[in-house]
Amino acid sequence: MTTFTSSVFRTETMTVPGGTETILRGGRDLFPLLPAALHGIRTIGVLGWGPQGRAQALNLRDSLAGTGIKVAVGLRPGSTSADDARAHGFTEDDGTLGELLAVAAEADLVILLIADAALAAQHETIFQALKPGATIGLSHGFLLGHLRAIGSDFPAGHPVIAVCPKGMGDSVRRLYVQGATVNGAGINASIAVHADPDGHATDRALAWSVALGSPYTFATALSAEYHSDIVGERAILLGAVHGLVEALYRYFRLQGADAVSAYERSTEAVTGPIARTISAAGLPAVRAAVTDQDLFDRAYSAAYQPARDLVAEIYDEVADGTELRSVILAEQRLATRPMTAIAGSEMWSHSAAAHARRDAAATELDPLTAGLFVATMTAQADEFATRGHAWSEIVNESIIEAVDSLLPYMHARDVAYMVDNCSRTARLGTRRWGPRFQAAYEQLALPALAGPADPKAIDAFLHNPVHEALAVAAELRPSVDISVS
């Protein structure tokens, strides 16, 4: 689904390669329309207080202030998150904090933001608690994949919608707060309408997206969302980045670089100047900015196909349910055995020293690092296009989310910190596929640098329609750059 209509909001048509897409440009000027667009929703229940649960509950509450629409947080009994929810103003006394099933039973819109594996285990109990006709809200399509795998479905008679921010929970809240005086500052989001028995599902999804602060909302299908989202986490958003910087750090060290310089040329280059250049001017601008364009071209040529092959393999395993089953199985193991951190490898011990040198000398766009990274990003975008995803989804899941949300956090902390502190599903996928990317770079791409660049590969890159799609979408990018202290 790339087109939609609204009885409340004025939509726009965006021209993309090969056609058009419907989008909604967000903004705080639309907040007065939210009650009408929600069509009778008086209570919104947000189940879960992880990064997305916290961010969405707070943004919804702030955007709906004064409307009479209540936002309540539902937590499992004895949840350790209750104190933090209370500290943010959700309390039992005013009915905005309660036990998970009780909140689900009261709400007209129930937003399911508990962990994927927990939702897979508890969805039937939650569905049984819903009031008749209550709208089921998701921010991720994992549950749909699980239901299909077990031969089940969402309960009949309930609208099922999704609003999926293209950034981590902290970004959703941080940009909303930073843009408090700016009309349209936030994280882009996709919407999906999976079931619409009362005819108001699209308006409700758009209202939810606007209330989160999304500057640009586009449409997708719930199945397409979880395919692109889960693949992206395992590829360019997290897994491939981790594998890339680990491989490059070792490569530069073997070439004689000291540890901090190797860290700067790998991790610092990707999360800093390369990400900023793509965000501001697009992928070809990275090639134009490097001092050794031949090395960039050789690196791009060497990395594109190995990266494309891995993205295709991940996509197949997500589409047939293998990757989702691996998450469920891992959760069963982790009940008695905690997940180990990845930050123990030698390179991460140099993070602080590299950060301390930032003011002394600006990190350059290392041509080797840039070529490998841009090739991987382009490979994911091309695979998504081949699989039939809409351009808005392609550029947001493959490029915008990376350079405007995740990579700035990685620059402020480091890549390993982000992997060790992301969602359980993303963390599991990164740990599984990051080493595969690392091996592909070390065993296939880096050895191929000795050969010449492939003119056909470079020509395909320079004339890739993703650049046109990104340029159009970038006009709607968040109007405030995220600030991470």
Automatic annotation (TrEMBL):
Keywords: Amino-acid biosynthesis, Branched-chain amino acid biosynthesis, Isomerase, Magnesium, Metal-binding, Oxidoreductase. Residues 24-220 form the KARI N-terminal Rossmann domain. InterPro entries: 6-PGluconate_DH-like_C_sf (IPR008927), 6PGD_dom2 (IPR013328), KARI (IPR013023), KARI_C (IPR000506), KARI_N (IPR013116), NAD(P)-bd_dom_sf (IPR036291). Its cofactor is Mg(2+). One of its GO terms (biological process) is isoleucine biosynthetic process. Residues 221-361 form the KARI C-terminal knotted domain. Mg(2+) 1 binds at residues 229, 233. Pfam families: KARI_C (PF01450), KARI_N (PF07991). Signal peptide: none annotated. One of its GO terms (molecular function) is ketol-acid reductoisomerase activity. Pathway: Amino-acid biosynthesis; L-isoleucine biosynthesis; L-isoleucine from 2-oxobutanoate: step 2/4; Amino-acid biosynthesis; L-valine biosynthesis; L-valine from pyruvate: step 2/4. Mg(2+) 2 binds at residue 229. Gene3D superfamilies: N-(1-d-carboxylethyl)-l-norvaline Dehydrogenase, domain 2, NAD(P)-binding Rossmann-like Domain. Belongs to the ketol-acid reductoisomerase family. This is Acetohydroxy-acid isomeroreductase. It comes from Kribbella sandramycini.
